[in-house]
Amino acid sequence: SKRIPASWLRFLWFMTCLGIACFSLIAGQAYASLYLSTLPHTSLDAGTWVYSWVITVQLLAQVSFFILGAKVRSRALLFLYKLFFQLVYHIFYRNLFARLRSPSQFATVQLLSSISVVIIFPLQMSRSWHRLLQIVVGYPQPWEDHADNVATSFYVRGLAQNVTMVGFLGWLTILHFGPNQHVYPFFRFTPSPDDPYTFQLTFLASCAIWGSELLSSLLARLIMNLAFKVDVSQIGLDEMREYPELVPACGTFLSYVACRALELIS
């Protein structure tokens, strides 16, 4: 009897992950379009939109991670896909900044995000959470490998977080002060009695959010280091040392996304 080669099956599973990734991009664009078509939003609305998108991305990501870990069995691809889904989420998140209409909306959205970072990632790394996964879904990995996976996810989250913010602030400034502002009139930020939204508010509020993100990430890293003796940065760098091809792959990927930030935020 003829048997299907294992390499061919792994390729088919990889193509399945690629399809999920393409679907996540389409879903993100549809999500952003729907958000923009229902303006204006309250602070509660903005928070609800963000967290419904977080749940959507996480569901798609977990399916892909399972396939790559259990079927394709490639740690390098798993690292890249973790980075990809974090970029998909953060691009939508940055897109939201250009549509908020008051400092209270910025504060509400970021407060929810910072609290989740400081609480959720250390919680996911805990032995209690690991034990719960073993009981509920038959999670096969030992706690040490589980902790490394959570640390790697947090590491790539930091990469995506900072690159998308640099891209957002860069294009925001270029479109506001550059010669092509007539092509993108939204980024002129001309205030009016009905819409007091300005470039200064957007830029300063985005920088404040970036500072809050860096602080919450630092606190989460300290908690994971003190509570579980896990160095997030070291684990992320070790992954790149073990798979050096990740360095140019991630660099190319991050540069491409930063260059496409204009298309995604406009």
TrEMBL record:
The keyword Membrane applies. This is Uncharacterized protein. The chain crosses the membrane at residues 12-36, 48-69, 76-93, 105-123, 159-177, 197-220. Keywords: Membrane, Transmembrane, Transmembrane helix. InterPro entries: C553.12c.
